[in-house]
Design brief:
With 880 residues, the chain is α/β, with parallel strands linked by helices. It has 30 helices and 26 strands. Helix 6 packs across helix 8 (242-258) and helix 27 runs antiparallel to helix 28. The chain is elongated, with a radius of gyration of 36 Å.
Length: 880
């Protein structure tokens, strides 16, 4: 359809759509937001709503779908979750006043990383908008490249800048993005491939490729100066490089483009993030330890929340505390004084039942002060939001009494700077009606007595309605028409309605206004005068209340920094009190965290599994790791016996101790760990052409390149994805590399089914053997879940198959085959030479037949039936 054939409305739509081509345009028409053309087809599919058409009678009907304007938020949320953006186009003129086409404008652009609306945000998760920049690469020194990352949570105003350099910069950037989990990531279109792929593993992240010029230092410098004070700019210049500042400026420029009419005063600070005080956890470790998301459903933390460390520890009573708890879990500390300060605070509240109970009870009414403050600052707060802030500030006043009795340094600092905001509470109490509606347009917002003109208009409205009631009574008496009524609708205003049976009694001064099937509607000069007084007062009152409410928001917004500071203090208090509560409920103890290298745990337990299996008795275990005689622990034992659980529980105890939490153990002394690495579980990346074994080797290589002697490494079944000899060779060489102080020398737990690995303890004094004990009785195996010294000599895999429900004939046949194999090999391979010259075969035994080894190497699952028959025929021919 040509432009000239379009109606004025559709031409207006086309003009607005051109300016927002990448977004789905919600075009306001009456009581609906309508979508047309491709937007309608996409939205109907993503929202599961009916697709119809406009101008059905024409030869080229326009696809159409729509949603009610009052329910738009739910539909917008679905589109955002699907990775789309939404441009909200409103009618900016009153349809009652304007004749012809109403003017429309896009008043809001919704993108996943720029949300402040409570109904669109996950309450307990941050909503980060991030940008990545890279410095120019020198051809002769690629390791000198520097990367910048900036992240902003618009819903709270929190802004972070960090930088990475050196040959591991890309890896460190990916680790930080895994911790942040941004909803939207800005990348320059001209970034090198290794950087363009940094978002590949981020769940639910919308990647925006921007022109390289938008990351230029000059343009981003102007954005920073527009947003921040001279003092902040000076600090950023001294603490960051142009790469980090360009990333920050790119975030701000994106905000200015997508939220052009938004006041961003709540973004007044940018924190430069240093990693020297926190433990760096990579995406593998966060995933494998199930810190914040379950392995079985990584995109949805709500699916089975109790299966994560966050699910166990997060008994916070405020959403601000819940978000901070997540941050503490994924950013454990390595700064000893800060760790001790947190532990002191947790200990004081764990021992003080009364103050802990009072604090948690007083915190329960506290709403999300951080996000309420942001909505107030950007003038998108509702009357209900302001009332929520009032209730929260009143609760802060109630906290003064229990806080006054606390003594630990962290808690004393909170008390000394406590600000209950009584002046702000007083303003809200005086200005906003306690039963104010959710929407400003509904009126009834301003409290009686706050503004004299509001009171006068309300009086006029009340009196006017009384006058109208009196006029109705007078007209009934004057005309003798008992059924006469004064009615009102939005189109005709006030009128007198008289049934047709009484038309003969209508006075001559009545002016006919409308004829209906059974009645006539009339107007009188007196009623017209009253209508103007009543409806005029109502319109003036609504406009005045909106104006006064915006003034209240502006007054509150001037205290944005105060409110944001109190939000952080409330969140900290909530997390500390929660950790104390959890320690008491779950029998956790205070760990001794020191700057040595020894890790001694007595009676350690897995924080998550013991909560999931409360009806069973969790078997606690001891752990000793150090840099001397227990640097590498080789852990052997059968499947299903608890090796992986043991590895993870040691890591979680260390992590919890360094985040400032008590730990599930009888006693724990933790030598500071700078990083925790995990290589557990089997996974592949077929889309990238990487098999399970390739992923395993890549993750192991990542650990060996990034670990330090201060690190804690957990390795589970290294080498299982290839042939026995290849896998054993790799596992052996990796273990020797890790325990060697000249190469790495990191504290390591190494679980394996290769019993030959136990020979390492005879060759290296820093290696010790441990096993999971089992009890065998009448052919059955009982897993005792107890870690004891020494190596295991059997894997009990057939017993596990029996427990899993394999048919009896398979279990019996497997036992026969196992006996034959054990009889054919009188001894295990002995490692008596350096690893470079290891011979895995006992010279006294005949060499294995090459065809047997070829069969072992076959990948049966990738062969078709015909391939298998051909290979079998070939082997038979060669044997004959």
């Amino acid at each position: 359809m040509s432009e000239t054939d379009l109606s004025p409305l559709m031409r207006q739509y086309r003009d607005i759509k051109r300016a927002h081509a990448g977004a789905i345009l919600f075009f306001r028409v009456g009581d609906f937001y309508e979508m047309f053309y491709q937007d309608a087809e996409d939205a109907s599919r993503l929202l599961s709503i009916a697709l119809t058409s406009r101008d059905k009678s024409s030869a080229d009907p326009v696809p159409l779908c729509g949603v009610p304007y009052h329910a738009a938020s739910g539909y917008i949320a679905k589109l955002l979750k699907a990775g789309r953006t939404v441009a909200l186009c409103e009618q900016v003129e009153d349809p009652k006043v304007v004749k012809g086409l109403i003017r429309r404008e896009v008043v809001r652009l919704y993108t996943p990383g720029t949300l402040v609306d409570a109904e669109l945000l996950p309450a307990t998760e941050a909503c980060w908008l991030a940008a990545v920049t890279a410095s120019p690469v020198s051809p002769g020194a690629p390791q000198e490249q520097q990367l910048g990352l900036a992240a902003l949570d618009l819903s709270t105003g929190e802004f972070r800048i960090c930088e990475f350099d050196g040959r591991r910069a890309v890896s460190h950037l990916q680790d930080e993005l895994s911790r942040l989990e941004p909803k939207e990531l800005l990348l320059s279109a001209d970034l090198p491939p290794d950087l363009s792929a940094v978002a590949a593993g981020l769940p639910g992240c919308r990647v925006c490729l921007e022109e390289g010029s938008r990351f230029d230092e000059g343009a981003t410098h102007a954005a920073l100066h527009k947003q921040f004070s001279t003092h902040i700019i000076s600090r950023l210049v001294s603490e960051t490089s142009p790469t980090g500042r360009c990333a920050a400026g790119a975030v701000l420029r994106y905000l200015y483009d997508t939220q052009p009419n938004t006041d961003l005063r709540h973004i007044h600070e940018a924190a430069v993030q240093r990693f020297s005080d926190t433990m760096r956890l990579d995406s593998m470790t966060i995933r494998n330890l199930e810190l914040v998301r379950p392995l079985n459903d990584p995109l949805d933390a709500e699916a089975s929340p109790r299966t994560t460390v966050l699910g166990v520890l997060d008994r916070t009573v405020t959403v601000m505390g819940s978000r901070l708890m997540r941050d503490w879990i994924i950013r454990p500390l390595v700064d000893l004084p800060t760790i001790q300060s947190r532990l002191d605070a947790v200990e004081e509240l764990a021992q003080g039942l009364e103050p802990r109970f009072q604090i948690r009870a007083a915190l329960k009414p506290v709403q999300d002060i951080a996000r309420l403050t942001s909505r107030i600052a950007v003038v998108r707060a509702s009357p209900r939001d302001v009332l929520s802030l009032k209730r929260s500030l009143l609760a802060l006043t109630d906290l003064r009494v229990p806080l006054a009795r606390l003594h630990s340094p962290l808690l004393r600092n909170l008390v000394g700077e406590w600000d209950s905001g009584e002046d702000l509470t007083d303003l809200i109490v005086r200005a906003v009606h306690p039963d104010a509606p959710a929407l400003v347009r509904d009126g009834g917002i301003i409290q009686d007595g706050y503004h004299c003109e509001v009171d006068g208009l309300r009086t006029a409205m009340r009196d006017g309605k009384q006058w109208i009631a009196q006029l109705e009574a007078r007209e009934r008496a004057r005309t003798g028409i008992e059924s006469l009524k004064v009615r009102y609708n939005q189109v005709f205003g006030y009128y007198l309605e008289i049934t047709k049976a009484n038309l003969a009694k209508v006075p001559s001064d009545y002016i006919r206004k409308q004829t209906l099937a059974n009645a006539e509607r009339f107007m009188t000069p007196e009623l017209k005068e009253l209508e103007e007084r009543v409806t005029g007062a109502e319109a003036k009152l609504t406009a005045l209340e909106v104006q006064l409410f915006e003034q209240v928001l502006q007054a509150l917004a001037r205290h944005t920094e105060r409110l944001q500071t109190m939000a952080r203090r409330v969140a900290t208090l909530d997390v500390v009190a929660t950790l104390a509560e959890v320690a008491t409920l779950y029998r956790y103890v205070r760990p001794e965290v020191h700057d040595g290298t020894a890790i001694h745990i007595t009676g350690g337990r897995h924080a998550v599994i013991e909560r999931l299996a409360q009806d069973l008795s969790f078997v606690p275990n001891d752990t000793q790791l150090d840099q001397d005689t227990h640097r590498l622990l080789i852990l052997t034992g059968p499947n299903m016996a608890g090796k992986s659980t043991y590895l993870r529980q040691v890591a979680l105890i260390v992590l919890m101790a360094q985040m400032g939490s008590f730990v599930p153990a009888a006693q724990a002394a933790i030598g500071l760990v700078d990083r925790i690495f995990t290589r557990v579980g089997a996974s592949d990346n077929l889309s990238a052409g990487r098999s399970t074994f390739m992923v395993e080797m890549s993750e192991t290589a990542h650990i060996l390149h990034h670990a330090t002697p201060r690190s804690l490494i957990l390795l589970d079944e290294i080498g299982r994805g290839t042939s026995t000899y290849d896998g054993l060779s790799l596992a052996w060489a990796i273990a020797e590399f890790i325990q060697d102080t000249e190469r790495l020398g990191a504290r390591t737990l190494f679980a394996t089914h290769y019993h030959e690995m136990t020979q390492l303890a005879d060759r290296h004094p820093s290696v010790q053997n441990y096993r999971v004990s089992v009890q065998e009785r009448d052919g059955d195996v009982l897993f005792l879940r107890k870690i004891v010294a020494g190596g295991a000599d059997r894997s009990y895999g057939i017993h596990v198959g029996k427990l899993a429900g394999l048919p009896k004939e398979i279990v019996s046949r497997a036992q026969d085959v196992l006996r034959q194999l054990e009889q054919s090999s009188s001894s295990s391979p002995q490692f008596t030479e350096p690893v470079e010259q290891v011979s895995f075969l006992d010279p006294a035994l005949p060499a294995p037949h090459p065809i047997l080894e070829e069969v072992r190497q076959m990948d049966l699952f990738s062969m078709t039936p015909l391939d298998a028959l051909n290979r079998l025929a070939d082997l038979k021919r060669r044997l004959e």
